[in-house]
Amino acid sequence: xxxxxxxxxxxxxxxxxxxxxxxxxxxxxxxxxxxxxxxxxxxxxxxxxxxxxxxxxxxxxxxxxxxxxxxxxxxxxxxxxxxxxxxxxxxxxxxxxxxxxxxxxxxxxxxxxxxxxxxxxxxxxxxxxxxxxxxxxxxxxxxxxxxxxxxxxxxxxxxxxxxxxxxxxxxxxxxxxxxxxxxxxxxxxxxxxxxxxxxxx
Length: 201
Hints:
Number of strands: 0
Largest sheet: none
CATH class: Mainly Alpha
CATH superfamily: Hypothetical protein, domain 2
């Protein structure tokens, strides 16, 4: 009975109209349907996504999704206070971890970003409030969203990139910031033909 229900749910899900970028991989579909574009307000969850978007640079997002659990384990659950204390020995450990993307610059940037995050927190700043301030604390949607209107960056992501860099963050270019904004619901870029599309109010 349970198996038949699961198959029926999967069949219904496969017939849904979605954004073309997610393809047909089950992991991609799950991410698109349940996470991408959903507003995130938790500081640590936002930090995790910003780091993962940085690691994705030059790779496919599917590669990161498949390694996400390994990333979480390797980086102590993405707790910034813990990562900020990582030493050269931790960098070496991570460089040997086949479960993550072994890029020294990105690993060292993660540690630096954790330190920048902690500095903001010690100054009484909310990471979430800071990031959402670039869109006036609301989710941005285009009046019409189709595949042809898909962007890789925006004025808001350019501003966010510049501001984060001034705060000491690395691997936060405008394109990375825009992908991060899409992932965390700061921007909603589901196309009109997608079942997740929401009309602008």
